[in-house]
Amino acid sequence: MNFYRAVRAVADASGSEPIDWTAVTESAKAATEPGSIDLDEAAIDRYRDDVRSARDRIRSVGGVDFDLPETIEVQHRHHWIDANVATFERVLAEMDTEIGMLGGLVRTINTGSMALSVSFLSNNVLGQYDPLFLSDSDEHALYFVHPNIERIANELDVDTARFTRWIAFHEVTHAAEFGAAPWLSDHLEGQVKELLADLSAGNVSQLDLTGVDVTMTAVEGYAELLMDRTFDAEYDDLRRKLDARRHSGGIVTQVMRYALGLGRKRRQYERGKTFFEQVADESDLETAAIVWEKPANLPTNTELDDPSLWLARMDC
Length: 316
Fold this sequence. Notes:
The protein has helices at residues 3-11, 21-30, 41-62, 77-92, 103-122, 146-156, 160-180, 184-200, 206-230, 236-246, 251-259, 262-282, 285-288, 301-305, 307-313; strands spanning 71-75, 127-130, 141-145. By secondary structure, it is mainly alpha-helical.
């Protein structure tokens, strides 16, 4: 790590936009050890086998018809930074933002904040299903950040191979959702664009915020359900330890989680999982998968807290 270079990149931020994305990438990488992905062929094969096993189990047990993304990568942290800075740039380009007379100062602050956020995330993300949000590509991608998986498995004192397999199941469940619901990417993009348009106009639309939150709660909750119901080994200790980790950390970690909205993401996991568990327990996994048939089948904000209302609306 080179913190001087990280700070220097932010200080030298330039251009006419509110954020200098080249400086974000340079600063985040300078502040982040990439980690090693010097894996032998057997280790790479384990990732491939885990992904294929997850696909087959989710298809058979979950009753979801989908294909895997064409791009499946084992990455280090700098690879993840490159992929996600491009996504952040595309998303934030949707905002019509003027930086005004204090443009240089505003650009520096924005660039530094984004670089700090990207660096923090790159050190904590384990795996990621990437629908290549707001891009011109029809391809999706699946990433595993191996140095983080290895580090956190050691911190949790769990077997790395079993932990990696569990993470693979979680990420493949997201591939199942987006594969089973070709409309989902466009639906989410539309919601995000409406939200960003409101923010650009200086408005905070609670309706738009709730819409995005409800969709993401369904996405995360269904993934949690499938992850637990299809994983082909014991996972209670993995679930318990990872949940405890989500609630732990020093003051800096907690502040970063709050600033990045990770507390909201955790609530989405928990609220969505509770909804889908009740649906599956009262009916079955195939009934839960009805949610991906069309946008109208997504639960409403009220139904998330009362799954019986959703089941009644779906005539189940």
